[in-house]
Amino acid sequence: MDPENLLKILPDPVRHRVEPYFDALEVMTSVKDPKVLASLGPASVRGLVFQRGKQGQPTLIPATHDAYFDWSYPSDQPEMLELYRRAKEGQWNGETYLPWATDVDPLDPEVPVIPEHFLNFDAFEEFGVKLDARERAQLRADMLAWQLSQFLHGEQGALLAAAQVTEAVQFFDGKLYGATQVVDEARHVEVFHRYLDTKLEKLYQINDNLFVIIDALMGDSRWDMKFLGMQIMVEGLALGAFGTLYKLTKEPLLKELLRNVIQDEARHVHYGVLALREHVNHHLGEGERREREDWAFEVAVLMRNRFRAYEVYEEWFEHKLTRKQWQHVVDTSPGMQEFRHVMFSRLVPNLREIGLLSDRIRPHYDRVGLLRYMEGKAAHEVTGDQMLAELDGRPQLSAA
Ligand SMILES: [Fe+2]
Ligand SMILES: [Fe+2]
Question: Which end of the chain is less congested by CB atoms within 10 angstroms, N or C?
Fold first, then answer.
């Protein structure tokens, strides 16, 4: 029997328990490269089946990387040194720099935190779910809280990964730069948490798919896999998501918060591209490069297909819609489509730039509809200011 049909005939409580297993199975059967499966498979079981990210405090992930010391203090990467200089000058205090006194009411239609058309409310009606104006506003506010909660959890991942990478990376200028990123990520954790805690008064648990990725790269002993996972995939996608939200929101405090975070994140992804471009092209064998290429593709698909706010579904619609129906609502929602579009238009050019989009893998990206982002600008070609100018619809001054 088709798994979808099997799911339909199960009683609700059993179906809700079984569905995550199908998700895990789908991840594992879709991965073709055995080395990639060895990396993502165990993390998928921990994340999707056992939901380790949701099992209370603390979550312990064993780490086994080498700390790389260099007592000769070489000046080895001038571009990273330049980023270090810019990062020192670009520091800001999350406590005093943002207008925290702003009164935020996520249900106020005059100052929408995200626009009315963000979700496809027609699809709810098609499935027989009616929501009045207040419920729609509340659902939108919850989707925002969910999105920001995932940003926050991703920022905690970035904080710990940046610390690991600073230890493990072999470029000395990269270590100096990396220390500034650790501070940046701490600040991001601080401001996203404060916004959720004091303005939206809501915090969602970590999404299982995001947990899988964080789990897989925190435990990987290879620094470049941590880099690829965190600096390029998670950070690259987050940067796109921050940009979309920055463009959509009319809430002034959130807009200002995102403006400042985007400036920092643009440096982080830039650093990821610099470090990996050098490493992939000059230090890896072809087999190792191919493994990273396959890994990046699987993670991209994991993020594209699966970032679907199931935590909101479970809270609102578990007994009214199937997961498949919820997926349809999310996939056809203009706001969520915009998120996906901007996220991948940022990510794909970076993968091209670091040498992980060879002719061998391109047909796979084409098959899942992501190759159209191929020609975009990579992180080292666009600064945070230019990114913001583009999002604001302002004319841009000059190339980076
Ligand atoms: Fe960050
Ligand atoms: Fe970051």
Answer: N
**pLDDT for the residue 391:** 86
Q: What is the pTM of this model?
A: 0.89
List the domains of the chain with CATH numbers: 24-392 (1.10.620.20)
CA of 261 to the centre of ligand 1 (A): 7
Percentage with pLDDT > 70 across the chain:
90
Q: How much distance in Å is there from the Cα of 322 to the middle of ligand 2?
A: 35
Ligand closest to Cα of 189 equals: 1
Q: What is the mean pLDDT of each run of 10 residues along the chain (400 residues)?
A: 62 65 64 71 76 82 91 94 96 97 93 88 93 93 94 95 94 96 98 98 91 88 89 85 91 97 92 90 92 91 79 92 91 87 86 94 90 85 86 64
| CB-neighbour burial class of residue 365 (10 A; exposed 0-12, middle 13-18, buried 19+) | buried
The ligand minimizing its distance to the Cα of 154 is 1
* Neighbour count for residue 80 (Cβ, 10 Å): 24
Which pLDDT score is estimated for 56?
75
pLDDT attached to residue 400? 37
Give the Å distance between the CA of 233 and the centre of ligand 1: 13
Gap from CA of 116 to ligand 1 centroid (Å): 28
Q: Looking at residue 2, what is its pLDDT?
A: 58
Q: How far is the CA of 209 from the centre of ligand 2 (A)?
A: 19
Task: Look at residue 398 in the predicted model and tell me its pLDDT.
Answer: 47
Give the Å distance between the CA of 139 and the centre of ligand 1. 26
How far, in Å, from the CA of 90 to the mean position of ligand 1?
Answer: 14
What is the Cα–Cα distance from 188 to 268, expressed in whole angstroms? 12
* Residue-level pLDDT at 117: 84
Q: Which residue, chain included where needed, has tokens 């009616």?
A: 130
CA of 147 to the centre of ligand 1 (A): 14
Measured in angstroms, how far is the CA atom of residue 41 from the centroid of ligand 2?
26
Taking the C-alpha atoms of residue 112 and residue 137, their distance in angstroms, rounded to an integer, is 9
DSSP 99-148: -TT----TT-TTS-SS-GGGS-HHHHHHTT----HHHHHHHHHHHHHHHH
CB atoms within 5 A of ion ligand 1 belong to 155, 158, 185, 188
Return residues with CB closer than 5 A to ligand 2 (ion). Answer: 158, 235, 265, 268
